[in-house]
Write a structure and sequence with these properties.
With 309 residues, the protein is of the alpha/beta class. The chain has 11 helices and 13 strands.
Length: 309
């Protein structure tokens, strides 16, 4: 099996798999790099721990475009994520590859009104400050000419293979079982969500477009709805009765004793108490708005969770 490709994807999670599938539609067979050599459809595999700078340079030596979709465990972000991304950036620089990183919206902190890319990265939470620092470091490296980089910023993920998201396996398992879907904060607050195949499409376009490099881009998302409306639409698609249950921060902390990712979400709960709306107008003006209609994206996601894969 070949392990050489101009497209190298780091991580075999939902985003890495979606990028591999998107490239395959163009006839490009990517190499997916993981610590365990996890097989991914439409791609070859390479085993390496890219948190190790030496291993990262070896794994990316022949890359032209690197899609950085790997991340540490959610509760280990502050301790491990900056060093991981630094190793990847150095390796991409050594190979001359373009580095496309998955980013999120934590770095802004609480904001009033729709989020745009020109907002300051003013987060004070642990994970938000970590994300902000990571982008500042990468942007500085790009500006200094050490690496060519671009960031695809996304909201909460949903779609096939998504597990540890507020719109992941717990959400859809409850929905399909006919039990209440737990939502954080205010069920009637609007909250943007990102369909993973739309993120993958954006990453491929950004990596191929030189004048897009050196800045973050908010990827396309379907029009924002409230959490209650999202549950209702998902239930309609699935043919079940929508049921919503609001989770208070103390409930998150209690559940977090056994489920660490839920404990880690407490500091991010502000995103769900007020409207959390992402503006991707800059991306749409440059690349077009290719966001999948929400009902279509939910239908595909429901089918995947039901096992129609």
């Amino acid at each position: 099996m070949s392990t050489t490709s101009r497209h190298v994807i780091l991580g075999a999670g939902p985003v890495g798999r979606a990028v591999a599938a998107r490239l395959a539609r163009d006839g490009e067979r990517a190499v997916v790099v993981t610590r365990s050599g996890t097989p991914v459809p439409d791609a070859d595999t390479r085993t390496a721990d890219v948190a190790d700078p030496v291993a990262a340079k070896e794994a990316l030596a022949d890359a032209a475009v690197v899609y950085q979709c790997a991340q540490p465990a959610y509760h280990r972000w502050p301790q491990e994520f900056p060093a991981l991304q630094a190793a990847v950036a150095d390796a991409a620089a050594a190979s001359g590859a373009v580095l496309v990183v998955v980013d999120n919206l934590y770095g802004y902190g609480p904001v009033a009104g729709p989020m745009t890319e020109d907002l300051p990265l003013a987060a004070t939470t642990r994970k938000g400050a970590t994300r902000a620092a990571m982008w500042h470091d990468l942007a500085a490296a790009h500006e200094a000419g050490r690496v060519r980089a671009v960031a695809a910023r996304a909201a909460d993920f949903f779609g096939p293979h998504v597990d540890g998201s507020t719109v992941g396996s717990r959400f859809f398992a409850s929905l399909l079982a006919g039990t209440p879907v737990d939502v954080m904060g205010d069920p009637d607050a609007r909250h943007t969500v990102t369909y993973v195949p739309d993120l993958a499409e954006a990453m491929v376009r950004l990596g191929a477009t030189e004048d897009a490099w050196g800045r973050p881009w908010h990827v396309p998302n379907a029009p924002t709805v409230t959490q209650r409306q999202l549950v209702a639409l998902a239930a309609e698609v699935a043919g079940v009765t929508p049921r919503v249950r609001r989770m208070a921060p103390w409930q998150l902390r209690a559940l977090g004793v056994a489920i660490r990712p839920l404990r880690e979400m407490v500091e991010m709960s502000y995103e769900f108490t007020e409207d959390f709306v992402v503006d991707h107008g800059a991306y749409a003006a440059r690349f077009g708005d290719h966001a999948t209609p929400l009902a279509d994206a939910l239908a595909t996601t429901v089918a995947w969770y039901r096992g129609d894969r």
